[in-house]
Amino acid sequence: MSMTLNQRSTETRTSATHRPVDVQEWVNEATALLEPHTVVWCDGSPEEAQHLIDVMVAQGTMTRLNDDLRPGSYLARSEPTDVARVESRTFICSQDPQDAGPTNNWEDPTAMRETLRGLSQGAMRGRTLYVVPFSMGPLNSPMARFGVQITDSPYVVLSLHMMVRVQPEVLAGISEGASWVKCLHTVGAPLQEGQGDTAWPCNETKYISHFPETKEIWSFGSAYGGNALLPKKAFALRIASVLAREEGWMAEHMLLVKITSPEGKSYRVVAAFPSACGKTNFAMMQPTLPGWKVETLGDDIAWLAPGADGRLRAINPEAGFFGVAPGTGAGTNPVAMDMLSSQTVFTNVAMTSEGDVWWEGMTKEAPEGLTDWQGQPFDKDSGALAAHPNARFTVKLGACASLASEWDDPEGVVVDAIIFGGRRATTMPLVVEARDWKHGVFLGATMASEKTAAAEGTLGEVRRDPFAMVPFCGYNMGDYMQNWLDMGDRLRGVGRMPRIFHVNWFQKDDDGRFIWPGFGENSRVVEWIVNRLEGAVAAEPSPIGLLPKSLNTEGLELSEEALRSLLSVSPELVSADLDDAEEFLAQFGDRLPPEILSELHATRERLSS
Ligand code: OXD
Ligand code: MN
Q: Distance between the two ends of the chain, CA-based, in angstroms?
């Protein structure tokens, strides 16, 4: 379908009387700048979703998959230049560069606005400007926050329908005074009169800019993932982390699960891992240990705040999953495979000759007759990948069979344990418990992981990624570490604080093979963690924290030597790691809380004694 510039019109789906004055003013300003052909206020309804789908199928953005094999599901193919978050084009525009800190790209807010205004002039010509009001978290939750995204991408609007709570009630809440975050997005591809559209409009120039002081997001040029689905990384992490610090809570890159032991006791656990380290697999874990149950509350982001009883509580601000497809299969994540059986939008996966989807790791062998993620016939023997390594699925939380009943509870859930983790071939044991909150914050502050495909960069390279938040913290990470320490002080008075652990599923042997089987077998580590929470097992002190004295490995083929490697620490490797961590931490200068350095020095002392 080619769209042509004709008379500007305004389409309405929500009644104009419920539009908050400040939102309307912002939309007017954006309309004047971006010059869209049409303005649509979205309501998140199934009719609206169907309309968006029709538009995208007609335009070639999405293809309907075989309705017998994948009912109600679609495949989108992006431009090969627009396939992942671009951290190099992500900016924190605080007044003072120190407030963005050394791990963020900083740009002066006034200069950035000028740049974006210049780029955005007429950027929506020939397109529809969608106004999407949404809530992060259950609408009536004290922890919920509202936002409105403006976008010219129907793919983004449809994704938001699945990822967040798009509801007109949000506008009523804003009219009554609720604060909200402005999320302005354009793909930056205006259409000239008579010009046909492309399947995935975007711009070579990309900016994902955040204004922490005014709590605004302005994204230009990309339609992919976190660059464009602004409620996710841009709002729920970068801007929310700023809000959280101001208001005394925490916005974290964490999954959230409910774990039930064979005795029927339940615990709620959050876990922070860098991108594509298996958070979705953990969130949907099918324990191999009999009697254990893991239920899903969230797979990517958790907001944590002390509740009325003073205990730390958490919600998942999202309402859907935007997960990495490759590596997901019946063996690794059967719950996800079931969840993706219908009503799913797939992006950049391969398509089978029957009109179904496929990606590396879904089955051992690629089926014959595949079309690759770029729409080309796939040659199995070429060594190329059929699906892009950052290919994604988008689906609503409700599709997940292991979803916990508390997922929509406005009060959230009490957090019993916090887990940090990374992808480390060596150095970090399978599991270690922090000595106390402060030491736990140190473990989070010195987290590291090998790079994956969720962002651009060299695969496999080890990168320090404190709390898995380096790409997602909207302010100076030294101050962020202080916020964690402050939370400890706030919670300490109440008695039961969450306990902190660090796990590493990814240790490799000398031949480069993973030592630990992972996935459902991770329930063995979960069992140890729960045993520690219940005070049922003693632990072995080590320089880096408390190690298991033993682990339930019954039924596993794991040599003595392998187990020893998993549950011990090498003083040489830890020592080298501390040197590297110290160098990394030094960049925060006087913004680094002194407690972090004293924990580092204490670890060194334990190593040498
Ligand atoms: C994600 C990421 O998409 O972390 O969740 O990159
Ligand atoms: Mn993530």
A: 72
Mean pLDDT taken over the chain? 95
CB 85 within 8 A of CB 227: yes
Rounded to whole angstroms, how far apart are CA atoms 405 and 437? 29
pLDDT of 318 > 90? The answer is: yes
Is residue 437 helix, strand or coil? Answer: helix
Measured between alpha carbons, how far is 440 from 444 in angstroms, rounded to an integer? Answer: 6
If asked whether residues 161 and 286 sit together in one domain, one would say: no
In this structure, the answer to whether residues 201 and 224 fall within a common structural domain is: yes
Evaluated on CA atoms 423, 428, 434, 437, the torsion sign reads negative
Q: What is the per-residue pLDDT for 462?
A: 81
Q: Which domain holds residue 146?
A: 7-61+89-247
Spatial separation of the C-alpha atoms in residues 188 and 124, rounded to whole Å: 7
> Pairing mode, if any, of strands 417-421 and 350-351?
unpaired
DSSP H or E run through 34 = helix 21-34
Write down the pLDDT at residue 432. Answer: 98
Residue 112 lies in a domain: yes
Same domain for 117 and 98?
yes
Closest residue to atom 1 of ligand 1, CA basis? 275
- 425 alpha-carbon distance from chain centroid: 23
Question: Whole-model pTM?
Answer: 0.95
Q: Which ligand is nearest to the CA of 323?
A: 1
Rg over CA atoms, the chain: 24
By annotation, the residues acting in catalysis are 277
Residues around the ion ligand 2 (C-beta < 5 A): 275, 300
Shared domain check, 573 and 472: yes
- Using a 6 Å CB cutoff, which residues line ligand 1? 85, 225-226, 275, 300, 322, 454
